């Protein structure tokens, strides 16, 4: 092994382009999902100032339906050199798609990789819906679906319910603050589906239960749209962008005892970042105190609470104080959270919007800009069997 | 006070039968709860797997359990999510007295939603549906004493 090479992604790849389509409520896209994917990718190319034909790799997650071979053909790619998929539902793989792109670049497998996610739920049906009347379910589902445990909502509500129990009732005030912070930030974000629909504490408290302990506003939206990000080698980035953003650290996977045998796992009441978060911090050589803001995947608000604790942003004992609303608000809060409105109030692109928002913060172009932001952490997919993290930095963090 | 109750007829997904899992569903049909257990080390295995997770022996067989346990976690659910439950309904994992971490996905019936709590002692009860499907639900264990 060449001793001059450290096995790390730190500073090896840079983000030079981001893009997204208009975000819509689920089922409202007037174009096919494939067209949405193309539009987001082409918007990211324009942002990067590159000819789409230069793209030579595609990465995605959550079993995205838009195949790299089709996309490459549609945008006139000269040579397709790389593609990868992070399997699994939901957005647990969102950071994995970005870090797989960075890995391909760092290892010379590709030079210009687009990570993306596209969703048109009118065309393909709603994500994560139980199909009533389906016959012959197998494996774990044979023991959960007959008891109605088919939606992520019930499965994850029970994880957080147990976490709250294990921590003497803490976390419920924090999850309320998470919802209010996301809606607050969406009010200055013209891309946000919930822009113009502010949420008050009173409205949150009066909202209907979905799955206790989660009310309507604790649950992410369902949306149509697409988002994309273009990564290139770090050394190529300064010529391509005035404000390149670098991958400082990344990790993906699961605590082995979280996933097997699923709900009989000893580490049940967690967001599943106990192994992934420390690996991300170790690669980046920084910790939660070095972060200017955090974009934390909200499928449900309680999952954000557990995620932030597992990343070291708050202790379980003080979680309701450390994650108070005032502390979560940009620009002045101690820990600005989901500054675009996130999955709750911007759009649920399975977490991809959180990554694009991290890039905007580090370029100085967020709708809720934190002055001088240099480091932004993004968490993906709390409570699922495969999660992923990326922490990004500006040029002077290298 | 409205008691939680199971659906009167079953319109949701049904389990596929295979040699590993069919004895479990057969036992429910007889209103017995039997789970897979390792004959070598005594470890209970649920969901069913062909070999013991603890000692990797494939000498496993179904044995009856007491049907008593406590609520490990739960959620009062206020939507159907595609399955025809009377709303609200309670999704739960019940931890059986036989072994730490031996948890069954289930529904809680026979009490009010706001009476359900983590640690509450429960016992198994059965509901028979069309086409030979029987589900194992749990209700408050009025005798108590099985809480963990």
SSE blueprint:
The complex is a heterodimer of chains A (398) and B (148).
Chain A: E1 13-20, E2 24-25, H1 33-48, E3 57-61, H2 68-75, E4 82-86, H3 94-106, E5 113-119, H4 121-124, H5 141-144, H6 152-166, H7 172-186, H8 201-206, E6 209-211, E7 214-215, E8 223-233, H9 237-240, E9 245-253, H10 256-259, H11 276-284, E10 293-296, H12 301-310, H13 319-322, H14 342-345, H15 352-363, E11 375-380, E12 387-393
Parallel strand pairs in A: 3-4, 3-5, 10-11
Antiparallel strand pairs in A: 1-8, 1-9, 2-8, 5-8, 6-7, 9-12, 11-12
Chain B: H1 22-29, E1 34-38, E2 44-45, E3 60-64, E4 68-77, E5 89-96, E6 103-107, E7 121-128, E8 134-140
- SS elements, strand count of chain A: 12
Report the end-to-end length of chain A measured between terminal Cα atoms: 24 Å
**Biggest sheet layout of chain A:** 10 strands, mixed
Which strand-content bin applies to the residues of chain B? 25-35%
Q: Which architecture of chain A would the CATH scheme give at its second level?
A: 3-Layer(aba) Sandwich
Using only C-alpha atoms, the radius of gyration of chain B works out to: 16 Å
- Rounded to the nearest angstrom, the radius of gyration of chain A is 20 Å
Identify the CATH homologous superfamily of chain A.
Answer: Thiolase/Chalcone synthase
Main sheet strand line-up of chain B = 6-5-4-7-8
Oligomeric status: heterodimer
Description:
The complex is a heterodimer of chains A (398) and B (148). By secondary structure, chain A is α+β, with helices and mostly antiparallel strands. Chain A has a single domain, classed as Thiolase/Chalcone synthase (Peroxisomal Thiolase, Chain A, domain 1). In chain A, the strands form 2 sheets. In chain A, strands 1, 2, 3, 4, 5, 8, 9, 10, 11 and 12 form a 10-stranded mixed sheet that branches. Chain A has a two-stranded antiparallel sheet with strand order 6-7. In chain A, strand 6 and strand 7 form a beta hairpin. In chain A, helix 7 packs across helix 12. The longest helix of chain A is centred in the first third of the chain and has 16 residues. Chain A is globular and about 55 Å long. The two termini of chain A are 24 Å apart. With 148 residues, chain B is mostly beta strands. Chain B has 2 domains: 48 residues, Rubrerythrin, domain 2; 83 residues, Beta Barrel (OB fold (Dihydrolipoamide Acetyltransferase, E2P)), CATH 2.40.50. In chain B, 5% of the residues lie in helices and 34% in strands. Chain B contains 1 helix and 8 strands; from the N terminus they run αββββββββ. In chain B, the strands form 2 sheets. In chain B, strands 6-5-4-7-8 form a 5-stranded antiparallel sheet. In chain B, strands 2-1-3 form a 3-stranded antiparallel sheet, covered by helices on one side. In chain B, a hairpin with a 5-residue loop joins strand 7 and strand 8. The radius of gyration of chain B is 16 Å and the shape is globular. The model of chain B has no long low-confidence stretch (mean pLDDT 91). Classes of the chains: A alpha+beta (398), B mainly beta (148). Chains A and B meet through helix 5, helix 6 and strand 6 of A and strand 4, strand 5 and strand 6 of B.
């Amino acid at each position: 092994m060449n001793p001059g090479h450290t096995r790390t992604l730190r500073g090896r790849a840079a983000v030079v382009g981001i893009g997204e389509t208009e975000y819509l409520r689920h089922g409202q896209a007037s174009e096919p999902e494939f067209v949405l994917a193309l539009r987001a990718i082409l918007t990211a190319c324009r942002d990067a100032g590159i000819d789409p034909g230069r793209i030579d790799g595609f990465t995605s997650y959550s079993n995205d339906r838009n195949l790299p071979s089709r996309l490459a053909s549609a945008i006139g790619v000269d040579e397709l050199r790389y593609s990868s998929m992070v399997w699994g539902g939901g957005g647990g793989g969102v950071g994995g798609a970005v870090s797989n792109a960075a890995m391909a670049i760092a290892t010379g497998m590709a030079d210009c990789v687009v990570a993306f996610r596209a969703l048109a739920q009118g065309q393909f049906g709603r994500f994560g819906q139980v199909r009533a009347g389906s016959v012959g379910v197998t494996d774990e589902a044979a023991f959960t679906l007959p008891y109605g445990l088919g939606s992520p909502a019930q499965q994850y509500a029970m994880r957080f319910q147990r976490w709250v129990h294990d921590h003497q009732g803490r976390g419920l005030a924090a999850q309320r603050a998470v919802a209010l912070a996301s809606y607050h930030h969406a009010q200055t974000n013209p891309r946000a589906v919930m822009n113009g629909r502010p949420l008050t504490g009173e409205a949150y408290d009066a909202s209907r239960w979905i799955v206790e302990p989660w009310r309507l506003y604790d649950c992410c939206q369902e949306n149509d749209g697409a988002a994309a990000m273009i990564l290139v080698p770090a050394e190529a980035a300064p010529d391509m962008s005035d404000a390149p953003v670098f991958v400082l650290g990344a990790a993906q996977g699961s605590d082995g005892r979280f996933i097997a045998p699923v709900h009989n796992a000893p580490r049940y009441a967690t967001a599943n970042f106990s192994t992934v978060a420390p690996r991300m911090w170790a690669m980046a050589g920084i910790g939660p105190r070095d972060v200017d803001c955090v974009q934390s995947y909200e499928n449900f608000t309680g999952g954000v609470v557990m995620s932030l604790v597992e990343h070291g942003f708050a202790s379980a004992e003080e979680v309701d104080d450390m994650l108070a609303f005032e502390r979560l608000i940009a620009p002045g809060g101690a820990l600005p959270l989901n500054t675009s409105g996130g999955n709750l109030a911007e759009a649920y692109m399975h977490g991809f919007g959180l990554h694009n928002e991290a890039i905007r913060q580090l370029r100085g172009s967020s709708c809720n800009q934190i002055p001088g932001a240099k480091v932004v952490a993004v968490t993906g997919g709390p409570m699922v069997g495969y999660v992923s993290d990326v922490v990004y930095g500006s040029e002077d963090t290298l | 006070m409205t008691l939680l109750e199971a659906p009167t007829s079953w319109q949701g997904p049904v389990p596929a039968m295979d040699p590993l899992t069919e004895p479990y569903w057969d036992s429910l049909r007889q209103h017995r709860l039997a789970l897979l257990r390792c004959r070598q080390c005594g470890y209970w295995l649920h969901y069913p797997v062909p070999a013991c997770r603890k000692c990797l022996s494939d000498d496993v067989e179904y044995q009856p359990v007491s049907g008593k346990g406590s609520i490990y976690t739960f959620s009062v659910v206020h939507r159907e999510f595609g399955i025809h439950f009377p709303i609200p309904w309670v999704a739960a994992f019940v931890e059986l007295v036989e072994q730490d971490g031996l948890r069954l996905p289930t529904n809680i019936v026979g009490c009010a939603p706001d009476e359900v709590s983590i640690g509450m002692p429960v016992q198994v009860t059965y509901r028979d549906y069309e086409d030979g499907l029987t589900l194992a639900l749990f209700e408050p264990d009025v005798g108590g004493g099985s809480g963990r």
